[in-house]
Hints:
- The protein contains two helices and four strands, in the order αββαββ.
- It has helices at 2-29, 103-111, and strands at residues 47-54, 60-61, 119-129, 135-146.
- It is elongated and about 80 Å long.
Amino acid sequence: MIDRAVSSILRARLALAFLVGYAAIALGVRELYPISAPTMFAYPLARRATYELRDAAGRRLPASAFGLQVTNPHDPPVTTLGRAGYGRRPPATLHRPGEVPPASAVIEHVRAHLAPGEAVTLRRKIHGDLDGRRVGVVEDERWRVVGADAR
Length: 151
């Protein structure tokens, strides 16, 4: 009976020591899953661009095939201890949370993904503040992008 009581007290102390040690490490290196900085509102977005691409026949093409997918800013990639995130490493994209690249940069980025002479229709919707109380589409742009000839 005494052995069980000692064993249970020892297990409780070990568990407490583990939790205290884990919390101390997490606080010392800034983050350590599951004790992480709350990222949901850490990246305020004033503007956000979404992209839609269609081929010559009007079929929708995946934005990720052109590096235009919108990544989740609340799930930043793992880098090292003391990092700002704990998520998956997303594929490369032109998109940066809260930023909208100039039209020329987007067109050149898409052109680099096209074969010579291949054409797509690119549509960009920029979402943002409409009137201080509502969020919606503030700009809607379309371009026809043709792959550069290899010379």
